[in-house]
Amino acid sequence: MSSNVLVPRPTVGLVRQKVPARGWQQDLWVPGSFDYDVTEDTFSGDGLNARYPIAKTNGSGAAVTFTEHTKFLLLDAGTDDEGYAGQGYGMNWDGDTGILFEAIVEVPTTLGSMKFEVGLSDNDQDAGAVLLKNGATNTATDFAVFVFDVDHNTSLAFHTAKGGTDVQSDGVETTAIAIDTKFLVSIRVDGDNVEGYWAQGGRIQRVAIHGGLAGIQGGTALTPWFFVQNRDGNQHFLRVHKWRITAPGY
Predict the structure, then answer these.
(1) Which of 33, 144, 154, 184 could crosslink 199 through cysteines, CB 3.0-4.6 Å?
(2) Chain segment 210-221, per-residue pLDDT in tens
């Protein structure tokens, strides 16, 4: 007995052939095309994929854990002042090829005295890509992350760095974070150009940083990056519910 689901035909070139002009149809068709590599994790199953590198942690109780049936990855900063937990996946993508990074994350408890980052970085063993949100100093060399840090203020910012020079975009600087609420982060990298997208319970907001120093080094290998840190001795968490990278396959 044959399946009721159609067996698809090859998709190479169809997106460009059928939708030559950039538009919503092209964006929707891309993930199903063989022209693109799609890597994602929805944190199902009974264990974390062995492809993940060892988490970057510091302090008592700091850990990155996966519990069966929860469908999220939990970053726990532990109980120490400046304790932290960070998780990458591997520096497998670059802007010269092209990247669309998307993630759904959540702050499950208080924001009181925490820092967190979500985005792309050139290192999965840094104690945060952004060292200080206030003043835009960094640890990583090339990155594009949304960062929240109460040592600065209680709003979200989008930071990128190209060759070690960090540039802050103030496009979402007035955006407040709601606890116990999932939010979407998307970052598009095309060469040295970077665009950030943010949504929480409403219409997506767009922040564009283009070219020059205000971008990223397109040839640098990047990893998905998630990070949480205490700014005092109170324990903080970040849940990662899902992430995906869509990139041209050739």
Answers:
(1) 184
(2) 555 568 999 999
